[in-house]
TrEMBL record:
Keyword presence, Magnesium: yes
Signal peptide: none
InterPro entries registered for this protein in UniProt: Dis3_CSD2, NA-bd_OB-fold, RNR_Ribonuclease
Protein name: DI3L2 exonuclease
UniProt keyword annotations, A-Z: Cytoplasm, Exonuclease, Hydrolase, Magnesium, Metal-binding, Nuclease, RNA-binding
Any GO BP: miRNA catabolic process
PANTHER family, alphabetized: DIS3-LIKE EXONUCLEASE 2, RIBONUCLEASE
MF GO annotations: 3'-5'-RNA exonuclease activity; metal ion binding; poly(U) RNA binding
A GO CC term attached to the entry: P-body
Pfam families: OB_Dis3
Claim: Acyltransferase is one of the keywords in the record: no
Family annotation (SUPFAM superfamilies): Nucleic acid-binding proteins (SSF50249)
Domain CSD2: 107-182
Amino acid sequence: PDVIIEAQFDDNDAEHGQDHLQDTLTDDIKKLSLDTGEKGKAAGVTGVHRAKQDNGPKVNDPRLLLDEFLQRTAKVVYILEKKHSRAATGFIKLLADRNSELFKRCAMFSPVDHRVPRVYVPLADCPPDFVTKPETYSQMLFICRIVDWKEDSSFASGQLCKSLGQAGEIEPESEGILTEYGVDFSDFSPEVLECLPQNLPWVISPEELAKRRDLR
């Protein structure tokens, strides 16, 4: 049920022109009319039984089917906006095949969110002692950003952005979530801080409080 087969039309239709296509449609309609007439003659004997079996028209040419019997199909032609940040939190580990050429160049990044694919990351982005001491980083969270995914590859390609810290700690986990969803958590600029009251501690005056609805 997950596979949609599109209707395939004979190239002969294009070669013989519109007249040939019209003749084909006319012949198919005549066949349908004949089939209907024969069924009508036998209705006195088997009409009720056939009505239970025939759930829809038996037509070989999809061009003659009604819309209710057709499965509409479409394909993506352009991506207007990429909603995902392409950043993910996860762990790095060595590739399983130590004898491959890829083992000398890349490591495997496994995202915490299983909806995100696993990613090949360059060893140059990993810590210097990662190859010799991979167990040291088995519980270390990293941020990886996907940059490409080739059609002939089972895994995406990406770059390690930074190390967050030990998994399970509040700050690394929070920073990872904010980065994944593209939330800017950097410090406020001096221009923004100047908009705040400078005389501290600051409190709401009774006059101002009287004009406000208290939602505390």
